[in-house]
Target: SDR family NAD(P)-dependent oxidoreductase
Amino acid sequence: MNNIIEQLFDLSGKTAIVTGGAMGIGNGIATRLAQAGASVMIVDIVSPQEASASIESIAQSTDKVAYTQADLSITANLETVITQTLATFGDIDILVNNAGIFKYVPLTELSEELWDKTLNLNLKSVAFLSKLFINTLIEKKHGGKIINISSIDSLKPTGNLSQYDSSKGGVRMLTRAFAKEAGKYGITVNDIAPGGVNTPGIRKIAGDNITKEQAEAMMAESAKYIQSLPLQRIGEPEDIGNAALFLASKASNYITGSSIIVDGGLLLV
Ligand SMILES: NC(=O)c1ccc[n+]([C@@H]2O[C@H](COP(=O)([O-])OP(=O)(O)OC[C@H]3O[C@@H](n4cnc5c(N)ncnc54)[C@H](O)[C@@H]3O)[C@@H](O)[C@H]2O)c1
Model:
């Protein structure tokens, strides 16, 4: 491998925070950043015990992985994420705002509680954790990278997800707005818009107590769905990890305010 290419993607000496990294897409991202040499702070709402399998899998690539348990939908918890990371690794360079929730509900049944719960995590925590991250980097006098995980729903509503689609549309605009102001501090802000990725969150939508007939019907439906995709397979967390590695690396240094769609072509269908 050409040395210049290796150096472009080398994250040795960098520290990344990955929210919602205990499973799913967050785990795929944390794993890829660790494989590129970064120290990784995983932040998630689940207990350290529930996160242990994920952390162990990341620890296969690095001995520089740590965990902070926090409910990010509560703004008062965000400061700890930064202070814990600084206390553990001494500095921060990359923030991946990945934690998010999605619940299917028709707009006629949408509750204020679900709206607030979704917006508080999916949009508000992204804004205020990014603000803390940017202020820390200004103080430390160095640049960095923010990578927000939006969704193809930021571009096209799926249906029965209006609170989620609104939060992700907000993340897309927040990415552009923060990028405009943070550039002068050497900080880039971009988002990745995934579509149809195989994660515990997506699998949970099927429900835990479905009948055999329902399970068979869903499998037939999902086979049809996969056939309809231009790339004819469902996305995996590492597909998003690959895009995150690009946005975290020097290879993307002149990109800010952008969005990378990683959906196997779903939006084309
Ligand atoms: N899976 C997909 O097809 C898909 C598509 C588009 C966008 N996304 C986005 O990607 C991100 C990850 O999705 P996923 O499919 O991996 O979900 P997931 O449910 O599998 O994982 C989400 C993680 O976030 C954590 N989390 C939930 N609430 C939290 C809170 N209040 N505080 C801290 N952590 C919390 C969970 O414990 C979990 O580890 C989300 O922002 C989601 O909207 C996913």
